[in-house]
Amino acid sequence: AMGELIVRTHIYIVYNDFCNGRDQGDEFLNHTYTQDPDLRLAVAGVKMFADGGACRAPAVSAEYLDTTPESLKDRGWVGNGDLYVTPDEVAEVVAAVDALGGVTVIHAIGDLALATALEGLKTANDRQAFAQQQRIDHNSLTALLTSDQLSIYGELDMVPVVFSTPWAGGCDPANAEVWASIF
């Protein structure tokens, strides 16, 4: 309001909670979205968390091992981790946000979360071609996707935003034992 913002900033309405996946209602449908580069501050779209990789466990296709440290098990690193959305939910939200002029930025770290997000994005785009470029951020386990799943990136003209795992100390050699016990 004071006109002092010197950095172009795009903010996103949160669709669901990153620690438990609970959706925040349909408030995201009550906004006008824009990616206008002339604006210093814009509400550009919606942030969706497909899995718990920010606070809980990434949703993965192979079950976490029994040797996973208890400190991680207590945070959900059991079974297949924490998948927060379905492909149909992704499709519905993305289609609605795209129709309102917005981008849906999907947090997906685990390969199961990535596959879910990609399936939902493909479904939404098959129903109505996107007007905006949608995104999946982090993509840590993209290497575990099948070639059919990876081809969806190309079909949707998306670039995987690969994010190594510093969020869990994955680049620290001291954590090699922990990672070996998980996968």
Q: How would you portray this structure in words?
A:
It is a single chain. The protein is an alpha/beta fold and 183 residues long. The chain is built from five helices and five strands; from the N terminus they run ββααβαβαβα. It has helices spanning 70-73, 87-99, 111-127, 147-155, 176-182, and strands spanning 9-14, 41-49, 103-108, 135-138, 161-162. Strands 1-2-3-4-5 form a five-stranded parallel beta sheet. α4 (147-155) links the parallel β4 (135-138) and β5 (161-162). α2 (87-99) crosses α3 (111-127). It is globular, with a radius of gyration of 17 Å.
Features:
183 residues, alpha/beta
The residue ranges in which pLDDT falls below 50 over 5 or more consecutive positions are: none
State the order of secondary-structure elements, H for helix, E for strand. EEHHEHEHEH
Oligomer: single chain
Neighbour order of strands in the largest sheet: 1-2-3-4-5
Query: Given the helix and strand composition, which structural class is it?
Result: alpha/beta
- Helix % is 25-40%
Number of strands: 5
Distance between the termini: 50 Å
Tell me what portion of residues adopts beta-strand conformation. Answer: 5-15%
Q: Major sheet: size, sense and barrel closure?
A: 5 strands, parallel
Radius of gyration: 17 Å
Number of contiguous helices? 5
Shape: globular
Mean pLDDT: 87
